Amino acid sequence: MARNKYPEQTVQQILSVAAQLFTDKGYEKTSIQDILEALGMSKGAIYHHFKSKEEILNAVMEQQFEYSARMLDQLVIHTTAATAREKLIQILEHVLSDPQAHSLDRVLQTQIKNPLFIVRGIQQAVQMDAPVIAAMMKEGVADGSISTADPEAAAEVFMMLVNIWINPAIFGRSIAATKQRLIFLQTLMKTLGADIVNDELIEQILNHHEKIGAFVTAESNGEGTEGAFD
């Protein structure tokens, strides 16, 4: 077999096609054979780059995390507002409404019981996203719109809670239970001197989770919580 002169293009092609299939059919219902047929490649061509479907999913997830990080950096540069607090709220609202940032949410939700996925999400929130949020909080301290004594810790707490604790799919929560926790988060951030969770953001977060089918009914709430990390 001739050597592939453009391995990066091949990898990107595999990831793009796989991501679309995962979205359309679901991760569990998509087979390596499905990916092969959609690509028109041999099995050897795919296995040269990825040893399993799980490796492909991990690469797709990593690419999505990288996109989100780049988007956040660009929003910080290009978003303008009267205060850093208002700028931060605008950025959070934009992140929630960006279609590409959430194009794989239904796929990622199927991995919610995977401990490695949860750990990767925590690492992304604390190591990649929180420092950007903290930098904006420091700007808010400087202009008087934010008063937290520890922007780094406040940003990490916010990102951990909004990405993990608030996520209804992880704990099997209903929309009412999730809203209750969002209101608590709103109060907590105010207490920490970082009033960045307004009512509009709460509704936007709830609408987002409802759109991807993350909520459970109140009757099945207990079952979802028990099996979150099985």
What does this structure look like?
GO terms for molecular function: DNA binding. It holds the Pfam family TetR_N. Residues 8-68 form the HTH tetR-type domain. Residues 31-50 bind DNA. Keywords: DNA-binding. With 230 residues, this protein is mainly α. The chain has two domains: 7-51, Homeodomain-like (Arc Repressor Mutant, subunit A, Orthogonal Bundle), CATH 1.10.10.60; 54-212, Tetracycline Repressor, domain 2. Helices cover 70% and strands 0% of the residues. It is built from twelve helices and no strands. The chain has helices spanning 7-25, 32-39, 43-47, 53-78, 84-97, 105-109, 115-143, 151-165, 168-171, 175-191, 199-211, 221-226. Helix 1 (7-25) packs across helix 4. The chain is globular and about 60 Å long. Mean pLDDT is 89; it is low at 219-230.
Short account of what is shown:
The protein is mainly α and 230 residues long. Helices cover 70% and strands 0% of the residues.
Task: Give the topology.
Elements: H1 7-25, H2 32-39, H3 43-47, H4 53-78, H5 84-97, H6 105-109, H7 115-143, H8 151-165, H9 168-171, H10 175-191, H11 199-211, H12 221-226
Organism: Paenibacillus xylanilyticus
Keywords: DNA-binding
GO molecular function, one term: DNA binding
Q: Which runs of at least 5 residues are low in confidence (pLDDT < 50)?
A: 219-230
Task: Tell me the radius of gyration.
Answer: 20 Å
How many strand elements? 0
Architecture (CATH level 2) name of the largest domain: Orthogonal Bundle
Mean pLDDT: 89
Q: Determine and state the CATH class of the largest domain.
A: Mainly Alpha
Report how far apart the termini are: 43 Å
Q: What is the H-and-E element order?
A: HHHHHHHHHHHH
Total helical elements: 12
Give the strand content.
Answer: under 5%
Assign a percent range to the helix content.
over 70%
Q: How many separate domains make up the residues?
A: 2
Shape verdict? globular
Structural category: mainly alpha
Q: Could you please say which CATH topology of the largest domain applies here?
A: Tetracycline Repressor, domain 2
